Request: fold
Amino acid sequence: MAKEAVYLDHNAASPLRPEARAALIAALDLTGNPSSVHGHGRALRNLIETGRQQVAGLAGAEPRQVVFTGSATEAITQAIVGGAKAFPTGAVALSAGEHAAVQKAAEATGLPVWTFGLDAEGRIDLDQLAAVLARADAENVTLLVAVHWVNNETGVIQPVERINAMVGPTRHTLFVDAVQAFGKLPLEFAASAPDMMAISGHKIGGPAGIGALLVKAHADTVRLIPGGGQEQGRRGGTEAAALIAAFGAVAEASAYDRDAMTALTAHVERGLQAFAPETVIFGHGANRIGNVTNFAVPGLGNATAMMALDLMGLSVSSGSACSSGKVGASHVLAAMGVPKDLAGSALRVSFGWNSTMADADAFLAGFETLLSRQKRGGKAA
Ligand code: PLP
Reply:
């Protein structure tokens, strides 16, 4: 590739921040096991506990509420599969816009799964949540309620304060997937209603392979990997001290500038609507986090568009889960009532800590070329 490709997929994984890289490399040179009582072990233990304080600081949590895991998916599974065993749970209730990690964990409990929908802008439908809570009362079922804070596909911010007020005072357990909110919004975990939250390192410029479950003392019995007693018995397995140190460093360095991110996406959206007025922007009417736009130009399939953009050195995503290189249909857009055909044109551009206006312009230039080729009747690629 002659020119360096432009990275526009921060919601999938943000590039490693220099602070995380430095902490990771320094920690890799340490030897030993953090559970050992000798000096080598204690040096690693110090790294882990410093990382715990740094991550707790950004999450508004107490350090002891942070359980390090191998990913947010693991933290989510611990919260939901472990939670369903640890607390009396009759059903798992979740929104139709949850990440596959949440959906699959709910299925893995073997319990009934109750769903509440999204509105046309991608916001969790609070009337439907209220109906689910009323049903639980009527049937005397205790729920594990799982919601996400910020949607990874659309960037829509969910009404978590209202959900806290609705579920917090009840007997039900509340879990929040805060992966796309961490570092972007104040989570205030310790002072808020959720019993558990999940966060991830690689979405904020840390390395992949490290996440955390935030858990309140009264919910501290959730277990997935009992193992050798690490993380105070809450997650067995020798801690990944270097990854934890990098996660901590990036949590301390993280400084999300929502206005700057919103300026980049607004620039892209204005540009798209200027040369393709038929562009549909999903979640446009909702409160959004700022760094992501999810849009469709009717008639331009996303798999073809992504390939053509990739050849131009532009890395974007379809937003929905991709496995084995295939673009899947978005359950989030389906839940918003977006017709299948239009959802098949959805593309996601997401910015992050090292994005610039030049990146946004490069995307617009590439996309305009792609559209004009398509309009001339040629192949998109
Ligand atoms: N939840 C949300 C909202 C996400 O965006 C992601 C990652 O895409 C995950 C969970 C899973 O995170 P991880 O890759 O750390 O397991």
Q: What stands out?
A: Residues 71-73, 99, 101, 148, 152, 177, 179-180, 200, 211 surround pyridoxal-5'-phosphate (CB under 6 Å). DSSP finds twelve helices and 14 strands in the chain.
